[in-house]
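User: structure tokens for this one?
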Amino acid sequence: MPTWLAGTAKMSRNVAFAALAAALVSSWLLQPGKAAGRDEYYGVVVDPDVDISQAIPRLSQLGVHTVRLRVDVKDWSRPEANSAETDRVLGQATALDEQGFRVVLLVSSVGGAVPSYARASALFGWLLGRPGARAVKVVEVLGPVTDHASNADALSTTLPMSLQASHYVNGPLKAAWDVLHDGGKRVLGAAFTLWQQARDFSSARAYTFAVTKAYLRAGYLDYVDYAGLQPYVGSPASQVAWVRQAKALFSSTPVWISEWGLNRDDYPTVDAYSKAMTQAVTGLHPLVGVVCYAKFTASDPDEPQLAEPGLSGYRRVQPAYDTYRGWPKQ
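Assistant:
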């Protein structure tokens, strides 16, 4: 073969190899990645009626990493009676998990019923076997426990706080630890709010940690990976101060805020509320592991929300949407 022809052939091979390599690199770089944001601090609350396939692009734009879902248990004695709603929410969980989101599942109790250890164990064991359960990484066990609507024992005039705490800790919380934790799930304890029962056998509430301390004495921290708070209050400074006080009670246990917001009525506009939330999100960052904005969508347009249903998907609610999107993320 003439020298010039051999050189041409070699050049052609090199060009072909370079083109192939470029194509492979381009293909690798352009592969669709996961939609979830990378910063684990940022979360959002998503209701069971949200169309998750349409929500995921918005959650991705926002930079959300953690999504808190909710299943409402209507019958603790017959787990299968809760199949329809449970499977629908686990369908949301599966779609989110496939896109890299960390899924927290709040197991809520309709009417605030606090199940026995045996009933809770049976339901959690059943839950582990449902299609899509693999997608759930963290289970939040009831709550908040300081609110009668979500914990029928709260504010009891017949049960002292010590028995309220024991009922929860040695019932559903211990059952979650024994069944779900051993099944590979992390456990998030029920949240505590600012306004708690002031004293035994009284329905009066006060700015106190009395209920929190009763739960800690009952062994709350023995059965959780994360302690839960819901610090609804008027100002960012007050919220940060209260969370700092609460965190000091939990020793080295990490703290999560699985439902996060300020008192919306204290702010005249969405813009004012969003600015206040920016102050809060910055102040809370050194104190807690996760803040789940409440909510992605809301049934009442006057409630805080990031998006609302539209004909072509979820529309951005401004300026809340861009405010959240603009928070610094890793």
